[in-house]
Amino acid sequence: MSKPNLQSLFVLGCSHHETPLEVRERLALSPDKIPALLQELRECRDFSESLVLSTCNRLEIYVHARNENAQHSIREILCRSLNIKNELLVAHAYRLHNLSAIQHAFSLAAGLDSQILGETEILGQMKQALATAQEFENTGSILNRLFEKSFQTAKIVRTQTGIDKGQVSIGNIAADLAKRIFGKLQNSRVLLIGSGEVGQRTAQALRNRGVQQLAVSSRTTQNAEHLAAQLDADHLPFEQIHKSLEQFDIVISSTAAPGLILRHEDFRAARRVRPAQPFFLIDLAMPRDLDPSLNKLENCYLYNLDDLAAIANENLARRNAECEQAHVLLNAQAWQLWLQLRRRSFMPIEKNQNV
Amino acid sequence: MLETLDLSDRSVYLAATILYGLSACLGLYGILRSKPYPRMGLLPLVSVAFLIQTLALNLRGASVGGCPLGNPFEVAQFISWSAVLLYFIVGPVCQLRLLGFFTASFSALLGLTATLFTAWDQPYPAGRFGGEPWIELHAALAIFSYGVLTILALVSAMFLLQQHGLKRKHHRGIYALLPSVQQLDTIAWRLLITGTICLSAALVFGALFWFDNPDRVPLFKLSMTGIVWFGYLMVVLLRLRKKLVTRRHAYATITLFILALLSLWPVQTARQPGATPNQPEQQIP
Questions:
Q1: Contact A257, A219 (CB under 8 A)
Q2: Could A181 and B182 be called an inter-chain contact, meaning their C-beta atoms sit closer than 8 Å?
Q3: One digit per residue, pLDDT tens: chain B, 285 residues?
Q4: Across the interface, do B180 and A162 touch by the CB < 8 Å criterion?
Q5: Is the whole-model pTM more than 0.80?
Q6: Do both B255 and B210 map to the same domain?
Q7: Which residue of B has its CA nearest to A183?
Q8: I need a surface site. Which of A294, A306, B67, B187 has the fewest CB within 10 A?
């Protein structure tokens, strides 16, 4: 492979793929340090454009280099900013040039490089990074074009493949199921029993989908009150849950109780009050809190941790299967952009460019 | 322009059936391939099929000199047409995904059955309903109510399918596309009320004719229609008392609809057997 032309697009970065967590912790860039870093990059004469992308899983610096000192300068600035040794960067950071850099940016925007394949959060983080860099006047025609084209490509990939189809987190899967039962969740009333972390996340996912009425109950009153305040929910005393079941549409249970806390009889009584209204029961506890026979009850839909995990695994496998097609699409888009940039003389033509 | 075309109403009906079939295949392809549901492709196809079917009904109506409801073939076509018309109203208003696919499948199936059973399209005297506005109104209302009840049966089938998926933890393919069970249940209830009101109105107008001409309405037809109407009325009352809800309600409406369809055959055969037949299939010169 030929040595890349250094007056070119260049990415230096590290991510969860190659860099261990301990090293990533040292390379983490807090948001308040980004403006200073951007300013330092802008003042450096070795680049005409620069951009910093910092997320919990990666740190990347995108530059349009003016000369061959660019690589060295980025490392120097980054080491100074993060107070780390150059050897650490050399050992763990990756470097990408021109077409490879474009392909990487496109892949990143489409969520193909993310820890959770196909996730969309990275797109927002890239948009934020571009906005910040633009605010500090660090970007110009090349990086602006690269990132805008990345967002377009991400949209194409997500539309034409199933890379982001199907939820992979327990909370979002539960929220999707709730929508299959109730449709709009604005009027659904949710009861969260216990203060387990997965239960909290599930309640939050339902909140994000429009649930307005949420009540929290726990065997420890203090925990319940604290969680209710945290989730902006009502507190329901634990001893009242059996008598209040008919008031709720969705019940999430994630307690550490050794046995069942809600039985078939409890819901049968609640159903008599509201026979036409469905119950969605989410049992996230181990051992289980809800009677498994509840799923046999008319208009009751019971899902436990294994059921939700099975859906998550299946969705993840489907996303993986879409990867190849997604890469074909984004590589074609990257090649187009690369040709455009070359035609417009933004980039010099490299000999033996490795496509 | 139509006069220049050499086509029979049966071939126009067949063209509509083929288009409904194509719409159903397009929807099925989207569902099986787990690709985005091709709503924008399906809607124009169903619309064209509906327009062609309307043309066929028009041609047949012109040839028989009235509303083309004189034999099982025509009744099947009219029910299918009425169901699609209802789909155009219910689909966008209630935002029911997949209803187009289900309606197109039903219309294709009914149209194909009606075409294959040539005995259904027996000739009958032209102008059978001529001069009897109450009977025309009765027939049109009855068939419209059958359209509503068809959509009700389809919505109930969708409800049972979604409920089955949720109970058995199926989450892909058609299950991911179907509307929520609560939405389907609510719409099924509204359709049941609408269908029962339309059917009741049809019976009232039919009764006006029957009071004046008791000899011209066979008792068997009257009994079958009464049984179907009473069945739907009972479902409404039981639902109001919350005795027949969700799954049982869906099964009841599907069963009643099948009974209603089956009852059309004896109702048709009970009609004035002594009348002079007339060839309904006519070529447009």
A1: yes
A2: yes
A3: 455 555 688 889 999 999 999 999 999 988 887 666 666 778 899 999 999 999 999 888 888 877 787 788 888 898 999 999 999 988 888 888 899 999 999 999 999 999 998 888 888 776 555 556 777 788 888 888 999 999 999 999 999 999 999 999 998 889 989 999 999 999 999 999 999 999 999 998 888 877 777 777 777 777 888 899 999 999 999 999 999 999 999 999 999 999 988 877 655 555 544 444 444 433 332
A4: no
A5: no
A6: yes
A7: B180
A8: A306
Q: How far is A314 from B147, CA to CA, in rounded Å?
A: 40
Domain A9-160 falls in which CATH fold?
Answer: Beta Polymerase; domain 2 (3.30.460)
Q: B284 φ, ψ to 5°?
A: -85, 120
- C-beta of residue B46 within 8 angstroms of C-beta of residue B20: yes
Beta bridge partners of A120: none
Alpha-carbon gap: A270 to the closest alpha carbon of chain B (Å) = 14
- Pick B246's closest partner by Cβ from A176, A179, A276: A276
CATH number of A170-310: 3.40.50.720
Residue ranges of alpha helices (H) inside B99-243 are 99-116, 133-167, 174-177, 181-212, 219-240
- Check CB contact under 8 Å for B180 and A276: no
Compare CB distances from A275 to B34, B36, B245 and report the shortest one's residue. B245
